[in-house]
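Re: adenosine-5'-diphosphate structure - here you go.
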Amino acid sequence: MKDEQSWFQALLSFAARCKGKMILSVLCSIISVFGGFVPFFGVYQILKLFIEQNAEWSQILFWCGICIAGYAVKLLFFAISTILSHVGAYTILETIRMQIADKLMKAPLGDVMNKTIGQIKSVIVDRVEAIEPPLAHFIPEATGNIVIPIAIFIFLIVFDWRMALASIATIPLAAIPMMLMMRGYSERYDTYMKSSSHVNSVIVEYVEGIEVVKAFNQATSSYEKFDKAVSSFKDYILDWYQSTWKMMYLAFAILPTTLLITLPVGLLLFSSGALTPVELCMCLILSLSIIAPLMRLEVFVNEIKIMEYGIRETMAYINMPELPNADKPVTLLHTDIELDHVSFSYTGKENEMVLQDVNLKMPQGSFTALVGPSGGGKSTVARLIARFWDVSEGSIKIGGVNIKDIPLKQLSDTVSFVTQDNFLFNCSLKENIRLGDPSATDEQVFAAAKAACCDEFIGKLEKGYDTPAGDAGKRLSGGEKQRIAIARAILKKAPIVILDEATAFTDPENEDKIQQSIMALTKGKTLLVIAHRLSTIQNADQIVLLKQGHIEAVGKQGELLKSSPLYADMWKAHIGAKAWAVSDESEVALHV
Ligand code: ADP
C-alpha cells in the first residue's frame, strides 16, 4: 500500500465479486435523484398555471400525480440502491475476512503467532467492520449528494446562466475557511489512528493481564497506564476539534447563505425582464437545494478516511508473505530428521542469528533431548522442524527430503508438536480430542484419552466427554489440559513427536500422569523433547546442549557429564534443586 490509489484499487478488487450489484446500486441512486426532481418540475408547472391564470382542477391534479409519482420513484430507487449497496458492502467484508483467514493459514505460523490476539481481532473484527457503513451508505447517498447539485446547476443554466452562477457563489467563499480547516488533515488523521490503536492495545493488555495485575497488586500503576492512554486520546481529539471548529462553523455559516446573493441577482434580472415571476420563484427554490447536499458530502471526507485506514490495515495482513507450499505429496521412506548447517534469524538480519550452523541427526525411533540455558535456541529448533518459519540458511530434512518439498498438510500429519500452550476449542472435550484425527471413532477417542490418563478426570465431569470445553476449561487444571492435548496427539499417530516438556503443573500426581501419557504418545516414535528438567531425559539416546544458538555438546548423559563442564554444572544445579524439592519420588524418567 504505497499510494492513495492502491488502497482504492484494493477496494475495487474486493468488490469484483459484487461489481454488478454495485453498478446497479449507483444507477438506482441516480434514478432516485432524478425522481426527486420531478416534484420540483411539477410545482413549477402548477405555479405556471396559476400565474398564467389558466389553472384547472384536472391539470393541477395531473401535476400533483406526477409529483407523487416522482417522489415514489425517488423513495423506491433509493431503497433498492441502499439494499444493493449493503449486499455489496457485506460481500466485500466477507471477501476481506476470508482472505485474511486464508492468509493466516498460509503465512508462516511464527509470523502469525508474533501478532497479539488483540491486533488480529482488531483488524478482522473492528477495522473490517468500520469499512461497512461508509461503503454501504457512500454509494446511494454520496451519488445523490453529488448528482443533485450538478443537475440543479444545469437546470438553472437552462433558466438563466447568471442565476446558476449566483447560486454557487457561496462555494468559493466557504472554500477558504474549509481549506484552512483541512490543513494537515491527513497527518492529524494518521496520529488519530495511531492513538486509537494505542488505546485499543492498552485496553486489551489491561483486560488480558488483569489476573497478574491483581496478583501483584499493580492495580494502581496499570490503571494509570490505561488512564493515561485514554486521557491523552481524549485530549488529542479535543485539541484537534478546538483547532478546527471555528473554521468549520465559518464555512458552514457561509455555505447556506445562497439567498443573500440569488435574491438581489434574481430581482435585478426580474426587473430587467430577463426572468418571469415563475422562473424567479423556481430559481430561488432550486438554488436553495444546491448547498444542502454539498454540506452532507463533508461527512464522507471522514468516512473515506475510515475506509482507507481499514483497507490499508487489512492489506497489511493480506499481503503477508506466504510459506511456499509444495503441492505433490512425497514418499518418506523413514522419519530420520536431519539439520544440515542450519542458521536462523527471526528478523532476517545476518547479525541477529539465533541459530548458527547447527548440524544434528535424529534417527528414526530415537529420543533426542534439547537442553541448555534459556534463550539458547531450543524452541527455535523445534519450531523450525515443524516449519513455523523457514530456515535462513541450510536445510532441514525428514526422511531425506527437504521439509520445504513436503506439502504442509503432509508435514503436519508427520509431525506432532505438543507445546505447553494447550488450546481447547469451543466444542466438547470429545471433539477436542478428535481434532487429532477427524475420522476417528468414539472408541478410538476414548482409547486415546485413556492412554493419556484423561478418562479419570473426564469421568468426573457431569457430562463426561460431552462437556463443552468452555465449561470444562474453567474447571480443568493446566496439567489436565495438557493431557487432553497429548490425547489429541496420540490419536494423530504422527511418526515424529516434538514435545515442549511442561515446566508448570509439576504437582506429583499430575507429573506422574503426564509422564505416563507422554510414554503412551512417544512409543516407537522419533522423539524430540525440549527439556527443562534433566532427570526426565537421562535415558535419551542423545542429549544436545544448545548455547547461544550453537551446539555446545552432544552425547548421552554419562558422556556429557564427563565432557561438558556446562552440562555437568547444569546437572549439579538440577540435582541440588531436587534435593530441596518436597517430593521428587514420583518423577518418572522418559523412556522410549
Ligand atoms: P530457548 O527455547 O532455548 O529458551 P528460544 O529458541 O525460545 O530459546 O529463543 C532463542 C532466541 O530467539 C532468544 O534470544 C529469543 O529472544 C529469540 N526469539 C524467540 N522467539 C522469538 C520470536 N518469535 N521473535 C523474535 N525473537 C525470538
